[in-house]
Every structure is written in structure tokens, then in C-alpha cells.
Amino acid sequence: MEKRLEINKTSYSNEDELHDVVNRACDLMEKIYQDGDYPKLVVKREWSEHNPIITGEMALPSAYRWYLTREMKKLLNRGADLTIFASRPCTDLNDPLLFDNVDEDEWDITQKKLFLFSPERIDISLNRLSHYTGTRPEDFQRYILFTNYDMHVDVFHKLYPDCVKPDRPVQMPAYHHKLPDNKGFSLVNIGVGPSNAKTISDHVAVLRPDAMVMVGHCGGLRNHQAIGDFVLATGFMRSDGVLDNNLPLNIPITPNHILNVFLKEALESRELNYRLGTVYTTANRNWEFMKKRTVHEIHISRSVAIDMESATVATNGYRYRVPFATLLCVSDKPLHGKPKLSGEAQSFYENSKEVHLKVVIDALEMSKSHNPEGLPNASIRAINEPLMGGS
User: Which one of 85, 299, 331, 338 is at 20 to 30 Å from 109 when CA atoms are compared?
Assistant: First the structure.
């Protein structure tokens, strides 16, 4: 196989030839990486007055081949010229210099580039993703659901009995309903708390998914909420603390509007009770032991629900330019004499688990139907962004 490939508008004359030439490009990227080098992609865009040439390196391209295929086709259809070749030897994951090349404090987001992440960051994140989830990065699908309950895993197994499962006991097991072009669903049981939520979303973001959805439970904070009601997040009160040094608290974080429209439609089609509003995310599971302080923040934020993961996933979705949404189910009402207690919780879980997951899957199916090539994400991209950034 050649070690260099140049593609321009004369390299293909129809869609079939375009598909073949992009497949050759992906094959070459994977071969270069397998041979121990980072593949480099150079894009020449005659239509760009200020940034006609953009370059980027990558690692493990087989894990997100669907994404590379989609984005290169877009570029070629616009008339770009692409060149692919071996850039430099891959950094060993045991090399002390590895983390010098993954330090996000060194990001210059104003510099145009092809990929949000360095190849070293891609390598270490996908290695850790496999470690935490017990599945290969290549198994992950474009639509990712996060939960922290085994009961949602049980429902996923019931819906997709042939899904890919972890090959060993792991911290955050993942399950994958695989479809062609990675258009299936992945469910990850992330456990409890914002640290886990940050860890998994740090690494999943490297795969450039089309959507991340938090499927969790929450404490209802308003009088007119009942156990089993749903909460569709429209904003987040960030009291988790884990990303405060990465993104200032005064930056507004809102979920993807299109995803929320589909989630709302899925809820209403089943005639389910739900409430729109702000979700308060805390790192303290026993926040009720500091009730006065927490309730003050709940009141000034107008929050309708409290949990431990949603704002963290949402913040990383914003940081990493991945469309995200949150659908929670009220499992307790700690401010109204209905704290989460073992017996009542188990009954609630049994009654809510199936419909909760199905609502999210219904919404994602609608999203796939209306946006087969991925959700528009201009709302979470700045004016200077990586070129290969989705729709």
C-alpha cells in the first residue's frame, strides 16, 4: 500500500468513486498508524481566504472511521484537496513526555486545525475508554447514553439481546447495539458522581459522537412534582465543582435544542408528566445535611431537580463540541418529606426503568431520521474551530 495519498476533484467523478477514494484514504490512515506512525491529513481549501491550508494528526483512526469518512466526503464535495501521509512516530504510552502533548492548558482554540485533540490525547483516551468500559473503542456507536443504574442495562439487554457486552468486570461497563455506519446506540453505566461523569465524557468525546444523553434519576424540588415524573433539562446549576478550573462558571451551558424537541415529543407521545427547567448538580450526595446552604442556591437558580452528573456531562459536551441532553426521572422529593429510602426507591425503579430508556431511544431515532448525518452543532462551536467538527 502507498504511504502517501493525494485526493482532489479529479480523483473521482461520481458518488461511488468518491466512496471508494475515501475508503482508500481511511485504509491508508489505519495502515500508517498500525505501522507505528501518526497519520497526518492536510486539507487545502481554495475557498478560504485566511486559512486555505489546515493540517492535523490523529491516532487509532479505525475507532472513528465513520466520522472521518463523513467529514472527508463533505470536504471533497466542496472542492477541497486532501493529502495523507505518515507524520511522525507514535509516542509510547509509557513515555514521560506523553502528557506534555495532552495538556489542555496548552490548547490554542483560536488556531485553526483539523482535530480538537492531539494524537497523544486520542491514544491515551481510547486506551482508558477500553480500560473503564471493557469494550473496544471501535464498538462505540454515534449515539451514547449514560446511566448509573443496572436496571437500565437490563432494559437495554431486553431491547438489544445481541448487544456487545464487556469482556471482563470493569468500573464503567458499556453495551453497544451496533448498526452499519455506527448509527446504533451505546449505553455506559458510569456509576455515581461528577468525577465519573467527567472521566467518561473526557474520553468518549474523542470519538466525536453525534449525541450524548444523560439518562438518570433526580430529586424533585418543586411542590407540583410526583415520584415518577420526568425532568427535561433546559439549563444547569454547576455545583459539582469538577470542571470549574476548565470552564468559568459564568459561561451558560444549555442542552441541544433539537434533541430537547425530540425528547419533548417522545414524552408527550406517551402522555408522560414532565417538567422543563434547571437541574442542580452537586458533588455531595448528602447535601441534605447542609440543607440551608444548598436550598439557598436551589432557590436563586430556580432549579426543579437535583442530581450528581447532569451538569458535568453537559459541561464537557459544551467544551468538546458534542451535542448533549438530559432526561431525568424524579425518584424522591427530599424537601417535601419524601427522601430516597430503600423500599420506596426499589418500587420506583421497577416501575420507571423501561419507559425512561425507551423515551430516550425514541427521541434519538427521531434525531437520526431528521439528521442522518449528525445534529447541527453550530451553537456549541466558536468562530475559530476545528474544521472537522460535524454538521
Answer: 85
Q: Give the list of residues 6+ apart from residue 97 with CB closer than 8 angstroms, or none.
A: 91
Determine which helix (DSSP H) or strand (DSSP E) holds 155, and give its type and residue range: helix 150-159
Amino acid sitting at position 221:
L
Q: Is the pTM of this model over 0.90?
A: yes
Residue by residue, DSSP assigns 68-132 as HHHHHHHHHHTT-EEEEEEEEEPPPTT-TTGGGGS-GGG--TTS--S-SS-HHHHHHHHHHHHHH
Does CATH place domain 126-376 in 3.40.50.1580? Answer: yes
User: What is the residue extent of each domain of the chain?
Assistant: 4-116, 126-376
Q: What fold characterizes domain 4-116?
A: amp nucleosidase, domain 1 (3.30.1730)
**Cα 106 from chain centroid (whole Å):** 22
C-alpha cell recorded at residue 342: 430503600
**Cα end-to-end distance, the chain, whole Å:** 31
